[in-house]
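Class, look over these structure tokens:
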Amino acid sequence: MWSWKRPTLSPYASMNQGRAPPDVTDDDYSYITSQDLQSSPSSQPEDDILLVKYRGRTEEAHFPAYSIGDGKLRVHDIRDRVGVMLDLPESQTRRVRLFYKGVQLKEPGALVRDYGVKNMSEILAMIRDDRDSADIRNSSPGRGSYGSEEDIPGAEDESSYGGSSVSGGTGRGSSSGKRRKGRKPKRKPAQPPEEAHVEIDPVHRAAQLEKLKKTKEYYDNDLAPLVLAYIRDPPADKGKSEEQHRRLTETILQQVVLKLDAVEPNGDEVIRSKRKALVRRMQDVMAELDEAKSRT
């Protein structure tokens, strides 16, 4: 018998039949370089950013990634960065005051995270004038978080505009009245040394007094009713109370105190005294807001 066996065929044999081998060139290869092995820029951590507000404008201040949360960023770091951003001399940089949610970042060496500051937080910056201070400073608990009358020599019991610091009406708020009971008589302020005669520009005086007038009217008409309502009856819910307190204090700082800071006395005692009276009044207002918040 004839033995016939079928040949074994490769399943791929027919694929190359009648075809030329592929032409492979260097372009068909890709090479990995040392740069390809490095991490791409997108994988690098992003900077921590704080939004610094100063006189109506907002600028970003960049810091190393995670420096806020890791407890590496301190108050003086922000102050120094603001000085660079505003191109301030060192003497003026030292007078920069920083606020977050209405609270001053007072201690230069304190960690900013201890004040609740986070990435993308808004920081309000102000520059204190040595003679005509329009900032609000932290001080004793009896005056809340914004300073005592002793911060300004010769502070009177009433503002020069009369009435309550909050509403502008007659009588003081109950909380303010309690603070003033039993106070020691004020010492008569020392007479300042005689100064060289300053030529008063009537046009400049009129313009600056108009700024003060508009700022006072804005507070009396727009903010005072809201402030008085909060002081009399703060929300029972602690979270709502803190949020309302934050909004009121930030609005006062940005819309009143900053505008007072922009008023330039230029040696004019009339302008200076009226501005100082409004500053003291805002100190009283925010101290009463703090006291109302503490009751919730």
The longest helix spans residues 202-232. The longest strand covers residues 48-54. The helical segments are 34-37, 75-85, 90-93, 174-180, 202-232, 238-262, 269-294. The radius of gyration is 33 Å.
